[in-house]
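ok here's RDD family protein:
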Amino acid sequence: MEEAQGKWICGFWRRIGALFIDTIVLGVLGYVVGLFLEDIFVQLGGWGRLIGFAVSITYFGVMNSSLSNGQTIGKRILNIKVVDSSNSTISLPKSFLRYSFLAVPFSLNGAQITNEALLSYLMYPLSFIIFGGLFSIFYLYTFNRATRQSLHDLAVDTYVVNTEISPEELPSVWKPHLVVVAGLFITAALVPVFTSDLAKSEPFKGLLATQEAINSNESVKYAGVTEGSTTFTSSDSGTTTTTYVNTQAFLYKNNVDDSDIAKQLAQVIVKTYPESLNKNLIQVTLTYGYDIGIASKWNSHNHQFNPQELNSSE
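and the structure:
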C-alpha cells in the first residue's frame, strides 16, 4: 500500500505512475519515428533496441539531472523529483550512470542473443547482469519501504522525493535487503552452471541445430524453435492432447502470408529434427516487424503442417 500522506520520500504508486507516463511519452515518440523509419528498424533486427536504449538514457539522463530540476515529464506532473542525500539535484554524468543500472538489465533481457553466446562463458556475466539486475530492481521497488530506493538509486545514493513536502531526516536501508540483493546476484551468476549442461542435452541440442538450419534460410533474419503440447477438454470428445514443434521466424520482408516460405521451414524441421515426425503438427509462425525498445510493431501469421505429409512429399 502507498505510504501515508505527507512523507518526503516518494511512495511506490506515485513513482510507478510517473514511470508509466514517461513510458507513454517515449512510446509515442518511438511510434512516430517508426512511421518514417520502419524499413531501417526492421533491417536492424535485435540491434534496433540500441536505438531505444540511446533515446531512453538520453531522456532520463537529462531530465532526471539538475538540467531539468531532477524531473522527467511524469515526475513533473506528479510533483516528485530525483535528489541526492543532501536534497540537491544530481549532475548529468551521475544521472546517466543512475539510469544505466536500470536500463541495461531490461535492454539485454529483450536482446537477440546468439546460441554461441548462450553456450559460452559470456552467459555468466549476462546472467549476472540480466537476472541479478531485474530481480534486484523488482525486489527493492516492492520491499524497500523505508527509503524506496531501488538498485539504481542505491548505486549512486539518490532518492525520489515529493517536491511539495519539506525534507526530513533520511531513514536507513534495512540491512537484510542488501543481503537479499547480494544473494540474488550470486544466484543469477550461478544459473549458467546448471543450464549449460541442459542446453547440451536432448531435446535442446537437437532444437538448437534445427534453429541454426532455419537461420541459414535467406528469407529468415532470426528464428527460435520450441516443442510442446496443448491439452483440450470437451464434454463431447473428452480430453485430447496435441504435440507440436513450433518455429517463429522473423523475416527480412513482409511475406508472413507466404505459405511456400513456411513450408520450406517446416521441411527443414522434419529433415534436421527427426523427433518432429512423432508430433501431431508443425507450426511455423512467420513474423515481420521491429522492436526498438521504446516501441515495437509486429505482423505475424501462423502456418500449420502435418509432419508425415511433409516427410512423404520430400
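+1. The mean pLDDT is 89.
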